[in-house]
Amino acid sequence: MTMSDGELAAHLADVAGRILLEIRASGVFSGRALGNAGDATANQFLVHALRDARPEDGLLSEEEKDNHERLSSRRVWIVDPVDGTREYGEARSDWAVHVALAIDGVATVGAVALPGLDGGTVCRSDKPQSMGPVHSKPRMVVSRTRPASEAVAVAEKLGAELIPMGSAGAKAMAVVRGEADIYLHSGGQYEWDSCAPVAVAAAHGLHCSRLDGSPLLYNQRDTYMPDLLICRQEWVTPVRDALAGIAD
């Protein structure tokens, strides 16, 4: 039986995550070499699997040479084999595997595997879960190595608790899983960093946009994306007001 797009995304993200854990557990690689080996192996698996399962669709991967033929496709799979390569290489838990499908430039289907968590988990756009109550004191996830100045300034204005974390997928899924309320990023990313997380977050009813409120568009010729905001709906206006205050 043919898998739905959502089932395919979740299956591939899960299997890629298991492959990455096996590579790490082998002990053959460590540090940067581990990250490189994981990236290459997971990318090879995802690219071959997607081309086999959806041969008519376009494909964009962080680890694959970009083919602009994708620009003529309405349906484009966008993947990041290891989001948070540094964290993966350091045997941390805050890394992820992203598998997404953008349709007409919109992040429509997505799966984000978090293999490093106990037992592993896959957050899916086709099976949204309850996020639980919003925190009375907002919790904001930021980069553990270089938190964006705008995020720190907004946190100060909102009285938010900062939660340092690794990969973009791990940060976005912290909001999806109810562990945090706001993910604000202004340091620049690429389409593969956010497409799957945005698809999953949007399916869970979260707000997803650029910092200026404009939509996040995918399958663009230039894959660079300057900023994004993923947050609980209750915090959209306070965050925007805080950003406006910073700009003033």
TrEMBL record:
Cofactor(s) for this UniProt protein: Mg(2+)
Highest taxon, organism lineage: Bacteria
GO MF: 3'(2'),5'-bisphosphate nucleotidase activity; metal ion binding
Binding residue positions for Mg(2+): E62, D80, D83, D193
Record's keyword terms, sorted: Magnesium, Metal-binding
Organism field: Tsuneonella suprasediminis
Region (Disordered): 124-143
Protein's name according to its UniProt entry: 3'(2'),5'-bisphosphate nucleotidase CysQ
Gene Ontology biological-process entries: 3'-phosphoadenosine 5'-phosphosulfate metabolic process; sulfate assimilation
SUPFAM superfamilies per UniProt: Carbohydrate phosphatase
